[in-house]
Amino acid sequence: MGTLQSRGFAFEDLMVWQKAVDFAENVIKLIDNWDAPRKHYRLIEQLEAASTSIAMNIAEGKGRYSRTYELMSL
């Protein structure tokens, strides 16, 4: 039995992945409009990394060969 991806079901088809991408785009837009002092640059980097990691973790889980791992990444 093949993985879902080998049967034509990619992570881009998952609504949760699409919402995660939308969330990351919204966070990045908010950050771009935020006039923060220099001392907050590290916080801004962490917000960007955290918001984008959601979609990346879902995509990584879909790339695994185990159904169990796919479910754990969601």
UniProtKB/TrEMBL annotation:
It comes from the Bacteria. This is S23 ribosomal protein. PANTHER family: FOUR HELIX BUNDLE PROTEIN (PTHR38471:SF2). InterPro entries: 23S_rRNA-intervening_sequence, 23S_rRNA_IVS_sf. It comes from uncultured Desulfobacterium sp.
